[in-house]
């Protein structure tokens, strides 16, 4: 297949994604790529640039890692169901599954609980993978705990020890990992998840993981029925994460507390501080976020699965090294 032929297929793919939402009366919003603030998330690195602002001189701005913050501000202002389809930027990630500049689909549904949003994500993925070589008819939905039981043979990850996790890595012949404290249970648990469990997920269909630990809530609500669990899910196909969704946190004070906790962890790990989005925090406090669920999906990954590509750079016009 020539590059032009593949780009034509990508054009149709993007058209079909938009049509999925237009048919459901979900509007497209075009949010800023540049912002005076950045995400404090420990695992995301924002690209920074300097702008010459007339009357103000040089000012630092960040390229967004997702459209989440401005979309939530729009929801606070009364915008209803909406989606964004466009570019986002995350520094340092470059592999067959990562590009520093990539395409993201993010959407928010008012009044949806987490299961309703999961069902919609599954429907979208099935629609786009229908007719491809990637199997997507079967849907497996497991809790975070159940994934460890089924794919890592750890009956209860909550009571398991760091030593239990290291033993699983050894059994699965994961190369020796150095630089991790022997009793750092959280990190060894994460390594079991990424190195042992995730490659096995969605081999014969779509796999949905929900009920993540509350410590990994990010900006999801913590379950009122089980305070140890966050109302968050991830979707995998062929061992690749495609989507990450939340029943959205709405409490403005809790947002600030989580942001400041992330800043503290960044400082502990020697990462540079970032400017918090005070505009978002003000809108959350003064106007309020409506009851909603939201999700972000990797467009380039889904297109690669549809086309049977091994590297997402094969499905875009130019990868970062060719730009």
Structure description:
- With 323 residues, this protein is of the alpha+beta class.
- The protein has one domain (3-135, 204-315): 2-Layer Sandwich (BirA Bifunctional Protein, domain 2).
- It has nine helices and eleven strands.
- The protein has helices at residues 3-22, 68-76, 114-129, 144-152, 162-171, 185-197, 252-268, 278-286, 299-307; strands spanning 27-28, 34-35, 47-53, 57-63, 82-89, 101-110, 138-143, 205-213, 229-237, 240-247, 292-298.
- An eight-stranded mixed sheet has the order 1-5-6-11-10-9-8-7.
- Strand 3 and strand 4 (57-63) form a beta hairpin.
- The longest helix has 20 residues, at 3-22.
- 37% of the residues are buried.
- The mean pLDDT is 95.
What attributes characterize this protein structure?
323 residues, alpha+beta, BirA Bifunctional Protein, domain 2, eight-stranded mixed sheet, 9 helices, 35% helix
CATH uppermost class: Alpha Beta
Q: Helix share of residues?
A: 25-40%
How many helices?
9
Estimated share of beta-strand residues: 15-25%
**Mean pLDDT figure:** 95
For the record, give the distance between the C-alpha atoms at the N and C termini, rounded to a whole number.
Answer: 21 Å
Largest sheet: 8 strands, mixed
Secondary-structure-based class equals: alpha+beta
CATH superfamily: Bira Bifunctional Protein, Domain 2
DSSP, total strands: 11
Shape: globular
- Please give the radius of gyration in angstroms: 20 Å
Give the number of domains. 1
What topology, given as strand order, has the largest sheet? 1-5-6-11-10-9-8-7
CATH topology: BirA Bifunctional Protein, domain 2
Low-pLDDT residue intervals, each spanning 5 or more residues: none
> SSE order in H/E notation?
HEEEEHEEHEHHHEEEHHEH
The CATH architecture classification is: 2-Layer Sandwich
